[in-house]
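Page 37, continued from 36.
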């Protein structure tokens, strides 16, 4: 289930210095998923914030879209060795989600992101804060397509893109760093592209 996959040609030095080791530039936006693409109606979509098993806050689609939105242009890097530069996203920063839930600070040092298809991935909570991560609702000025995680996905662009969980349904604060779907199947527990942390042991 683990593949090293994508290869492509290198570009100019200015572009190359923005590519982490082992990455190649992708001009399109490859679609890679752990399973079939779910199609979630915005009428049925909710987002839940939990501490362990305890719900802290929950939003419907309309309520979530009423939260403050932020636009970010970020480079993204997939573990299968493609990178896409200057991608434009709009969504709700994790900082603003915590503020809307009345949290001055996160309750635990680790977080599990959960998705509607049963997928999960772990991220240190500090890697979600300070403007580093958002729940993205649009890409390149358009609503997020289902193939790319719509109606909403987690965006953690400084880590390999499997950490940016598609079809996100909530965040769960946890005390210990528990592996998610791909981490249990051989991917690195953290996933820093600049350190080539693709697989366990890297």
């Amino acid at each position: 289930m683990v593949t090293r996959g994508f290869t492509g040609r290198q570009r100019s030095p200015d572009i190359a210095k923005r590519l982490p080791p082992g990455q190649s530039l992708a001009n399109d936006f490859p679609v890679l998923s752990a399973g079939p693409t779910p199609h979630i109606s915005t009428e049925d979509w909710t987002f839940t914030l939990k501490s362990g098993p305890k719900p802290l806050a929950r939003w419907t689609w309309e309520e979530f879209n009423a939260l403050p939105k932020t636009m970010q242009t970020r480079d993204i890097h997939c573990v299968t060795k493609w990178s896409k530069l200057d991608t434009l996203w709009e969504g709700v920063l994790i900082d603003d989600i915590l503020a809307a839930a009345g949290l001055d600070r996160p309750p635990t040092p680790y977080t599990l992101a959960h998705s509607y298809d049963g997928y999960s991935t772990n991220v240190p909570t500090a890697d979600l804060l300070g403007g580093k991560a958002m729940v993205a609702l649009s890409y390149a000025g358009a609503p997020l397509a289902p193939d790319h995680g719509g109606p909403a996905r987690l965006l953690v662009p400084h880590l390999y893109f499997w950490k940016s969980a598609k079809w996100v349904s909530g965040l769960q604060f946890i005390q210990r760093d528990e592996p998610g779907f791909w981490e249990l199947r051989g991917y690195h527990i953290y996933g820093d592209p600049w350190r080539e942390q693709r697989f366990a042991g890297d």
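The CA atoms of residues 18 and 85 lie 8 Å apart. Flag for discussion at group meeting. The longest strand covers residues 82-93.
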